[in-house]
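Why ATP synthase subunit c? Reviewers of the renewal asked for a concrete example.
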Amino acid sequence: MDAALAKAIFFGLVALGAGIAVGAAAIGGGIGFGASARGMLEGLARNPNLENKLRLYFFIGLAFAETAILYGLLIALILLFTGVLSGKAGF
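Here is what the prediction returned.
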């Protein structure tokens, strides 16, 4: 295997890893959003008087779910733009 082919495979795998990172984070975040919404609606159905308190906890839960998505995006951006694809990573 020559160096050009090895380099092309390496860069392709880096791009694939970035895509998988974003996709997995989005799936996890979607599951978190769904679980938060389900919990809010179940709690609201049981006791409608706690709407304001449940809303606060709902938004906190959404923030935690959103951080997983942002971390996945951050990992993908680090993989793509820290010199790996420009050849500055010692390759």
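The chain is about 80% helix and 0% strand. This is the kind of structural detail the renewal will allow us to pursue systematically.
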